[in-house]
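Workshop exercise sheet. Pairs work together: one partner reads the sequence aloud, the other fills in the structure field after running the prediction. Swap roles for the next sheet.
Pair: D.N. / O.F.
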Amino acid sequence: MAVKLEFDGNYDNVEIVTAEDPKLFTWGEFTSHAGNRLPFKIECDALTLSDWDCLASMIMEYQDVPFRSVEGIPRGGLPLAYCLEKYATGKEEHQPMIVDDIYTTGQSFDDYMKEHYPDALGAWGHKWVVFQRGPTRWKHVGNVKSLFKLYGVD
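Structure field:
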């Protein structure tokens, strides 16, 4: 379940957490947010603020529709949202952008949308992830965009 943080829309006080011994990729047995067993982990805490800023710039190369604000799904999406905030228009007529670091099953997006936008249609808002490691759910097809998809992921 997504955790609602008291957040005023200002990322100035958000701490970017990095791992003490950062390794972006680790082989081993892990459990996903949705409870699935995974043979490796993508640890985005290994990314620096400069890395996140670069990833935000890369997303903007492909984001062709303006967005009014950006929201990061806690915890992995917060640094990406922080770096994308400068591109938001602030205009109410634009939809928000919702971001996360990794898409495995789409459960985080579903939980976030149910909690924060319970009346919105599934295709509402602009959604981005850095890494997509699992297949896109039918209701997310064409809606959640990813910078990097692992081999074999549709």
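Discussion prompt: Residues 11-17+48-149 form a domain with the Rossmann fold fold (CATH 3.40.50.2020). What would you look at next?
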